[in-house]
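Narrative summary of target 7.
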Amino acid sequence: MKKYLLFVMIALLAAPAAAAPTKFWELENHNSFSSGKSQGALILSGGGLQPGLRATKIETKEKLPGLFSTVTQFKSGKILVGGADAAGLWTVEQEKLKPLCMFPDDIMVTRIVELTGGDALVATLPKGNIYRVKPDGKFELFVKLPVEHVWNLVVVGNTVYAGTGPKAAVYKIDMATKKATAWWSVEEKHIMAMQFVPKKGLIVGTSPEARVYLLPEATGAPAARLLYDFSGNEIRDLVVHGETVYVAVNQLQSRSTASSPTTELKPESETKVPKAPITAMERKNLPAHQVVSGTGSIYMLGVRGEMEKVLDIARGYFTQLQLEGDRVYGSDGHSGRIYSVETKTFSAAIVVEVEERQVLGFLLKNEKEGFVVAGDGAAAYALSRDRGKEVTYTSVAMDAGVPSSFGVFQLYATDTAVKVETRSGTTEEPDDKLWSPWKVITGGTRAPDGGYGYRVGSEPARFLQFRVTWNNGSATKLEKIRVFYSPLNLAPKLAAIRVGASRGGPGPYTDPVIPETVPVRSGDLTIAWQVVNNDGDALEYRLFVRKVGEKSWRPLTPRAPLTTATFTWKALAFADGLYEVRVVASDAPANSPGSELTSEMISKPFLVDNTSPRISQLLIKGLAVSFTAADAASRLIGVQVRIDDDSWKPVLPVDRILDTLSEKFQLTLPTTLEKGVHLLQIRVADESGNVHVMSQEFTY
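Modeled conformation, tokenized:
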């Protein structure tokens, strides 16, 4: 039996898809790609895909510190990594991490800068020590500042600027004499972000007031100018691009790491700050341990003082910024991500994502290679386009709704340095055992609109899935994907026909009251039907009617077919009797002539009654009145009487129930009736809406 069913299914899928209209899936914007699974591929905020950098974890046999806090690459290519918990420097040699030197009096390396000649200047905490380290790892104390935290170092000629805390001061150090001078301070806690701009001066960011100042070059204390007071409690980093400053602003709620100052945090501002055009959502399935809680934003601060938000992190905080070309990169200390933002369009993407949630330092070069260091478990990664895990993007199972045959896979991309595979199946969730195997599509031809067209080789089925794998070293950007298919044409199926009103339940119900003024009866009957249309084709309908027992059908829609599933039949001109309606549904509007499919259904017999009930055997004797009301086809639903100009009064039959076609009535007129000639009126209604009125004069 199973073999037979399988044969029937295969035969069905292999059958031609009749002439159903061509359909296609299109993936172009961010939302259309976001439901797929990315492994190293960037889903761009403006739409499309491009390969991210592949991360390869740097191994070592040495005992690692609690976390890696910062990383710097010298002009020679040498990489130095700073450690925390056990402050020290590490180097990367032959893709291995090796310790270079340790600073036993300190807890954390916060900044490493290159000096002329290849030496390194290293800032630490919590004793305000700055060291000068030789390439071989030998070091000496360069200067000891009267502070606890040295957060940042900027070297300008023979001068070193040091951003410090917890009393927010900038120190100016002479390289030759090693003399340190408290150059500028502000009533805050920390100065973590600094950037020197030639001919302008030093730009600094403060915490916890989250302010950015410009400190012009001066021999004495500078006349600081406040550039902007941000809504947040930490300026973590800033970079300068021409006349524009990009600022990483965090709003932190809790902290349990030495990678940032542990201070009383500024509460979130009540001032409404507009959202960025893009918000990076939280990464799922992260380790439960929470290091820092908060949100982060990258702002653009223009030369005229204008401010715009560029990127928001829904949950997390920025740890570092880097500027390269027209892109600003920012690392997140909560999700293990590095984001890129185009400065011209503000479009954003995730460049890389590592296992550890705290990216504390990174460096990128032409977005082709780089290096990442992480906390929450010390780790270092080499970034590359042509090494490490494959970069892939796998779509969701795309649902054609019905079994379909697949046509061209159209790829709009900067080039074709990718491998595209497809597979098909009949289950909503892809299953390696039940679906067809992955099949590479080849032989793409360039279309005039710039797309590359490939023929899908996967078997006809209801669901299709594709997978894109970037070649080693490929930077191909996929801008849009289209996949064409033709659904197997399915016949519409009529499920029910209803003539007249439907009560919808068991009741109880009450017969309607005959209105004071009886309207002219139209005789219209409403015919409605339900149809199952699984492939969503446009449908048309034709209706036919006949008396029960007749062979020939009379068309009710002789001119043009209907396009809605309801019809009002003008039945007043038709003779009384039992009728039936035939409805024919067709998908001809959606298919070529000769390939349309139809189905039909005949209704249950229903009554057409255009004849009013009659009153007979009327007898008036004194105040006693009797009569019979009857209808040839429909049950009586109401009888009323009135004397002269009095109001209509309902009366019940002798058996007190209106439940047959004929009913006998007996009633007694009011004893207050005056002597003389009177007019008795009787009206009776049937279930089909016919009403008859009879009048009779009598003398009392």
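The CA atoms of residues 407 and 561 lie 33 Å apart.
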